[in-house]
Amino acid sequence: MKPAEPRAAAASPELLQIGRRPEHPAHPAGGHPADDPGHLTILYRGPLSSCDYDCAYCPFAKRRDSPERLRADRAALERFTGWVAGRGHPVSVLFTPWGEGLVRSWYRRAMVELSHLPHVRRVAIQTNFSCRPDWLAEADLGTLALWVTYHPSQVTYERFMDRCRDLVGRGVRFSVGIVGLPEHLDHARRLRAGLPDGVYLWVNAAEGHLYTDAEAAVWTAIDPLFPYSRTPHRSAGRPCRTGDSVISVDGDGTVRRCHFVPAVLGNLYDGTFRRRARPCPLAVCDCHIGYVHLEPTGLYDVFAGGVLERIPSIL
Ligand code: SF4
Ligand code: SF4
């Protein structure tokens, strides 16, 4: 665990002035749909826990799910998408599977189906994007977005960059990221140089890795927002949108405020969950999918229009 530190050294707005992304038609600059009253953001993680990649630092590397677990994952996802389809209020969804979802047809179908629902503001997924991209042609690209992670030990630079070029050509909204391990540094530099300016490359601080100021400066030159990831955010007693406008849901519909606080707040399907603002009960928050919702970070402004897919409003 990295030591807690206030984020006073977080990236300043001028660090972000490295070119401007064209305004996204569905989400004009200056606001995020998550700010709408009644809007609910859901981080969904079903039973799936397998991956086609074999990253050394990951517990899901090359893990296989039994046919029973895959069937359960599919049924749970279909139940969830049915619930979302029946809502009368705006919803955004980020799929955060343990492992890789898009190699499974039901995740691709869920992304496409949810993207076409008028009350779904955004549907995004964390993915290694090893899947073929053809299915994206069926989606509403004003709503769908991808959070893509580059794993240099698992895919060649050329193949990964071809995938990124394909996504750009299709007009898909996506961010690309890499874990800030020393052995990834040259890969990250090459990737940044190869990606169009309008594609944001994020760098995640490696789990348990302490960065000297000099090391942090090197990574910050690649991702101006790396200071937000460098050390955990102190969160105890601080206001966090989770539990109110943001929730975590598992395959059974069990609702928790986020993926990191185990207390159950109710169930999505039996109506026992009630939204309520409450401060964070943990000492620190160390993961972007959590601290982006922690109000003192101010990250809803930094990522306005792209909170779930991790795309800053000014690139
Ligand atoms: S791609 Fe992601 S889920 Fe798969 S092994 Fe690598 S880190 Fe784990
Ligand atoms: S700050 Fe992080 S750990 Fe705390 S409630 Fe929010 S998302 Fe969860």
Attribute tags:
TIM Barrel; nine-stranded mixed beta sheet; 315 residues; binds iron/sulfur cluster; disordered N terminus; 8 helices; two-stranded parallel sheet; 15 strands; alpha/beta
Question: How would you describe what is shown here?
Answer:
- With 315 residues, the chain is an alpha/beta fold.
- The chain has a single domain, classed as Alpha-Beta Barrel (TIM Barrel), CATH 3.20.20.
- 24% of the residues lie in helices and 19% in strands.
- The protein is built from eight helices and 15 strands.
- The protein has helices at residues 67-85, 105-115, 157-170, 185-194, 213-222, 226-230, 288-291, 299-302; strands at 40-45, 49-50, 91-95, 98-99, 120-127, 144-149, 173-179, 201-204, 233-234, 239-240, 246-250, 254-256, 264-267, 278-279, 284-285.
- The longest helix has 19 residues, at 67-85.
- The protein is globular.
- Mean pLDDT is 89; it is low at 1-31.
- It binds iron/sulfur cluster (2 copies).
- Residues 51, 53, 55, 58, 60-61, 99-100, 128, 151 line the site of one iron/sulfur cluster.
- It comes from Planobispora siamensis.
How would you summarize the topology of this molecule?
Elements: E1 40-45, E2 49-50, H1 67-85, E3 91-95, E4 98-99, H2 105-115, E5 120-127, E6 144-149, H3 157-170, E7 173-179, H4 185-194, E8 201-204, H5 213-222, H6 226-230, E9 233-234, E10 239-240, E11 246-250, E12 254-256, E13 264-267, E14 278-279, E15 284-285, H7 288-291, H8 299-302
Parallel strand pairs: 1-3, 1-11, 2-4, 3-5, 5-6, 6-7, 7-8
Antiparallel strand pairs: 9-15, 10-14, 11-12, 12-13
Helix pairs in contact: 1-2
The chain binds iron/sulfur cluster (2 copies).
Residues 235, 240, 242, 257-258, 260-261, 280, 282, 285, 290-291, 293-294 line the site of one iron/sulfur cluster.
